[in-house]
Write a structure and sequence with these properties.
It contains one helix and six strands. It has 137 residues and is mostly beta strands. It has a single domain, classed as OB fold (Dihydrolipoamide Acetyltransferase, E2P), CATH 2.40.50. The longest helix is centred in the middle third of the chain and has 11 residues. The radius of gyration is 21 Å and the shape is globular. The relative contact order is 0.20. About 15% of the residues have low confidence.
């Protein structure tokens, strides 16, 4: 089995689907990963690759992907690669690779408390000590 670790960004909000018989939920989404490199002549270049991903874990889909994943969310995914085959409306068979998610980490930036959404402010927990007290050392 081929294992892949992918660090990228969601192209769009994940599609949450329910199985017809059992009603179990799964999430499908596309992740873009960009690699930056230097060419032999010294000029910078970059290559962007898209990956189709599917998460069959219902708990992960309901508790993390559905409420928190949105377009532009940075994700780190570990999973295995599978062949995906389907027949189109024109009768032609299509082949693709997809990443079956084993572990996913959402790397959302926290929005500022004032609602500006700049993603730079992180709310700290309240201090345990009164800052007006003298420091004992």
């Amino acid at each position: 089995m081929q294992t892949l670790t992918l660090d990228g960004f969601l192209v769009a909000a994940p599609s949450i689907l329910s199985a017809q018989g059992s009603g179990r939920k799964r999430a499908t989404f596309r992740v873009l990963e960009t690699t930056r490199f230097r060419r032999a002549d010294g000029t910078a270049g970059e290559r962007t690759t898209g990956f189709n991903c599917v998460c069959f874990n219902e708990a992960t889909t309901e508790k993390y992907i559905e409420p928190f994943a949105k377009k532009g969310t940075r994700v780190v995914i570990q999973g295995h690669v599978e062949n995906d085959t389907w027949t189109g409306k024109d009768g032609v068979e299509h082949y693709d690779l997809r990443l079956v998610v084993g572990d996913i980490r959402l790397k959302n930036r926290r929005d500022a408390a004032d609602g500006s959404g700049d993603g730079q402010t992180v709310n700290e927990p309240p201090a345990q000590y009164d800052t007006a007290d003298d420091i004992p050392f």
